[in-house]
Amino acid sequence: MMLVLKVIFHFALLGIFLPSAFAQTEHNAKELFNQFSDRIFKVRVLELSSGNQASIGSGFKTGDSGQVITNFHVISEYVHYPTRYKIVIEDRHGENFDLHLINFDVVNDLALLNSPDSENHSIPLAESLPEKGEPIYSLGNPHDLGLSVVPGTFNGVTRRSLYGRIHISGAINAGMSGGPTLDQYGRVIGVNVASSGNQVGFLVPLKHVRKFIKASESQRLKPSDYDTTVREQLFSNQQIIYKKLLDAEWKTSEFGQVVIPQEIADHVQCWGDNFSEPDQKYKYIQSDCQGSEKIFLSRDFDTGTILLQYAWIESEDLNSFQFYNLLTLEGTSMRPDNLASEDDVTNFKCHEGFVQQDHGNQPITDKAAFCAREYKKYRGLFDVMYLSMSVKHKDRTLLSHFSISGVSKETADKFLMKFFSEIAWQ
User: Fold this and answer.
1) Which tens digit of pLDDT belongs to each residue from 348-366?
2) Which DSSP category does 375 fall into?
3) What pLDDT, on a 0 to 100 scale, did the predictor assign at position 2?
């Protein structure tokens, strides 16, 4: 199965740099293909018992030792089940090499493999990024059709990207993940990682690649280290991300008769809608705020998501029973925002009850549920959901919900308290 990531809606320089005369020479797609095709590979993960491929992507040689960079999501099956799979790369002549995994960065979707040969010819990393609008060239193996060059345009670092992803106009298709995108001088400006279709592609930026290669100089993982390393990387990342988020002043806005937190960070974007109809017996306004990126763990499991949802409902025509049934129906439609299977997480455990907080002269009572499920392989990390319904009035209410994934209990508790304290009736 070929893997390619989909985005929502929605590096101390270590490469071998060519002489300055080369840096001043612009290249077209044909010249880049001819010059670097021996340094770009097809990366496959094979299931040992059948010999069939479980995933396919691309990789390229970089750094002083000519090791191979690819995406974590390309080789993730091997990381999770190293006794069931192996990593193989194929060069342009069709020759195959069994490679060993040296290191990975699950958060930034990178992996480093040993060099397939003694030749240390690498593709150099760029010293700086192109200007917006300049031509770029993505290389890889789209749909297992063979090494291809896809021209495109550099659009800069996305403003709403949590991890600083680079946005390009160009077709990054399944199988190109892990390949390089080059500037017109033949220098790597990022690693192909994701697509949202319609010629919209995304790259892992060089700052993460450089840091990863540097860390890998003293890091040689063994299969017994894989699960612990994933957990440590996820745990460290969530601490950094949520400390900034919880220390920040959240943006709030009016919603119905309340004030709610919405775009609480640059990478969280909100969308709204009004579902009220003339012949409808109730007014229904909705707001959804969602983070722009996820962390890929496996094809059935992702994490690092954040979702805030609100619904303002009011009616003078429904009786109490009808109004409560409407709220119950809407509440049950709210779900966690990340993908996980029963092999990955425990069942949700929930605490339900009534919570009250004073907002000046406006004491608010909510019926609330706080639920968490733990990661089976990465203990101490949880997916958390919170759902509350105000019961101050019998003809209008606020439904509020958040879902955050891959967080510690301490982080979940702090997020809950901040979320609750930011909601105020007017």
Assistant:
1) 999 988 877 665 556 667 7
2) B
3) 44
Query: Distance between CA atoms of 107 and 71, rounded to whole angstroms?
Result: 11
Rounded to 5°, the CA angle 270-345-245 comes to: 35
The torsion angle over the Cα atoms of residues 92, 209, 155 and 146, rounded to 10 degrees, is 10
The pair of structure tokens assigned to 324 is 């409560």
Are 264 and 287 within 8 A, CB to CB?
A: no
Q: In terms of Cα–Cα distance, which of 297, 9, 63, 85 is closest to 180? A: 63
For residues 89 and 170, the answer to whether their CB atoms sit within 8 Å is no
Smallest CA-to-CA distance from 378 within 416, 406, 336 is with 406
Taking residues 105-115, what's their average pLDDT?
A: 96
Pairing of strands 40-47, 110-113: unpaired
- For the ranges 69-73, 167-171, 364-368, 386-390, the one whose mean pLDDT is highest: 69-73
Rg of the chain in Å (alpha carbons)? 24
What is the phi/psi pair of residue 205, to 5°? -70, 160
pTM for this structure?
Answer: 0.88
For residue 389, the SS3 value is strand
Q: Which residue has the higher pLDDT, 172 or 75?
A: 75
Q: What is the pLDDT of residues 278-317, one digit of tens each?
A: 777 778 888 999 998 999 999 999 999 999 999 888 877 7
> H-helix or E-strand containing 76?
helix 72-80
Whether the predicted pLDDT of 187 surpasses 60: yes
**In 10 A of CB 83, how many CB atoms?**
8
First-last CA distance in the chain? 53
Take residue 23 and report the two structure tokens written for it. 């840096």
Which residues have C-beta within 8 Å of that of residue 10, sequence separation ≥ 6?
196, 269, 290, 292
Structure confidence by residue, pLDDT tens digits, 16-73: 233 333 344 677 888 888 888 889 999 999 999 999 999 999 999 988 778 999 999 9
Tell me the C-alpha distance between 98 and 76, whole Å: 16
- Asked if pLDDT for residue 161 goes beyond 60, the answer is yes
Contacts of 130 (CB under 8 A, 6+ apart): 136, 154, 183, 184, 189
Q: Is residue 422 classed exposed, middle or buried when 0-12, 13-18 and 19+ CB atoms within 10 A define those classes?
A: middle
Mean predicted lDDT score pLDDT of the chain: 86
Whether the Cβ atoms of residue 377 and residue 342 lie closer than 8 Å to each other = no
Tokens for 263, please give them: 């775009």
